[in-house]
Amino acid sequence: MKDKIHVGIIGFGTVGTGTAKILIENRELIKKRTGIDFILKRIADLDIKRDRGIKVPEGVLTTDAGAVINDPDIDVVVELMGGIHPAKDFMLNAVKNKKHVVTANKALIATEGNEIFAEAEKNGVEVGFEASVAGGIPIIKVLREGLVANNIVAVYGIINGTSNYILTKMTDEKVEFSDALKEAQRLGYAEADPTFDIEGIDTAHKLTILSSLSYGIPLSYNEVYKEGITKITAQDIEFASELGYKIKLLAITKLSNGEIEMRVHPTMIPNEYLISKVDGVFNAVYVEGDAVGSTLYYGRGAGDMPTGSAVVADIVDIARCDNGQKAKGIGYVSADYKIRKMEDIESMYYFRFSAMDQPGVLSKISGILGNYNISIASVIQKGRRLGGSVPLVVLAHTAKERDVLSAVKEIDNLPVVSDKTLFIRVEGKEE
Ligand code: HSE
Fold first, then answer.
1. Is 1 in a helix, a strand, or coil?
2. Which of 106, 132, 202 to mutate for ligand 1's pocket (most ligand atoms within 8 Å of CB)?
3. What share of the chain has pLDDT > 70, as a percent?
4. Which CATH superfamily groups domain 4-135+306-325?
5. Between these two residues, 326 and 247, which has the higher pLDDT value?
6. Are 266 and 227 in contact (CB under 8 A)?
7. Domain residues of the chain, as ranges?
8. Pairing assessment for the beta strands 389-400 and 346-356 based on DSSP bridges
9. Which CATH fold topology does 139-300 show?
10. Ligand 1 neighbours (beta carbon < 6 A)
């Protein structure tokens, strides 16, 4: 094992700064713990003038990514620039130069990871991506190492801090989505273009990675069902609360009848479940293994220092991995797997119908639900608006998604229904 490891970073933004800070400030601590001296040799960024609040040794900063990728001394290249291009080329070039790579780039790993891992294996180097899912929570290590002896039954994650902040704000302050989003943007949580956060795309990138690690399947981002939080209203949150639930944007992967489910959508979770108490920008991942049972991991899913903590852990891991047992990208890939189609899933459901407030409407709606084998658990109707429409809320027992889609289509065509029906999948035990 080498006792000195030279590190080069590409991308001196938020996470790059956190990573550099940890490598510089905790250098002695990490050396004491590992017996290895981690030397930050280069940081490349187009902007090397801006003050990031840390003192970087002379000669480390460069505007040329090639000075990192092609430096013969550098053992580990850390890609922290984000986006697909040119990050992918930088990573592949580093790998071809026989350098290990570490990244926090979930979009890149989820969509291009299969190619990057294959290239890394060909070149005998490692790819670390702990920081790509749930920031500072070491969830990759949990799945790969801590729970290696388990068949994974299910994984449920709140893994996008921005959407969790928005839903928490809507819950606590009864504000609408657009106002909560504005506040998230003001505080710098949401990206300038928040689509990835609020449409479930960022969550789906991370779920792709968790699914592959849990079930040994190739990274299959395109197979993930994605639904964001933009249609959730403050009223839905209030109805959910009356029924004893919180609404969270949940990433779910689990085995159902031998098929793998991968889905991201707003989900109602019973108030008494620990994960429903994960608020604000915090992340949490619940993992159930056949041997260990239920486990839950909680922490900060973004930010310079939490994400930097995961990046540096990967660098250390790679340096320590001298026993010839490479991590091999995503782990094993099983030959035989099937991803479940969304129409085939089963769940409990919350429906908010926009129905005319007149006699016989409920029976028309419940009749259609009944025709599709959707059984009602409870009903709420609040307010009277003669001649107008009111929200009619129905909580249904476990039903098939395929039946739900057909029933909603038929209900939305009724003349007494004035607007599109909103439905939310519900987790928890059947009452
Ligand atoms: N936009 C992400 C979030 C950042 O809100 O969680 C961390 O991946």
1. coil
2. 202
3. 97
4. NAD(P)-binding Rossmann-like Domain (3.40.50.720)
5. 247
6. yes
7. 4-135+306-325, 139-300, 343-426
8. antiparallel
9. Dihydrodipicolinate Reductase; domain 2 (3.30.360)
10. 135, 160-162, 197, 202, 301-302
